Input
Amino acid sequence: MGEHPDRLPPSLRQPRRLGSGTQARWWHGLNYTLRALLIAVGLALALGFLPVPPHAQSTLQTFGVLLALFGLYRLVSYHSALRRHDAEE
Output
């Protein structure tokens, strides 16, 4: 359980950093883009911009609202994790 630090693999010796330094800046841009795309698809489903069968419209609208809220949560949580990490440095 309490392994000596020298016995751990290199990937476990130091925690991965979320902020600047270990990951390229394009990675953060990709993360923000994908999360914004999740929100956009959710809103498109919720507002009826995508063609859906009439019998599934209310179900897909509900799913769209949930998808948009989940995307918003992921966007805010990722942004706050980056800010928190940058504040610790």
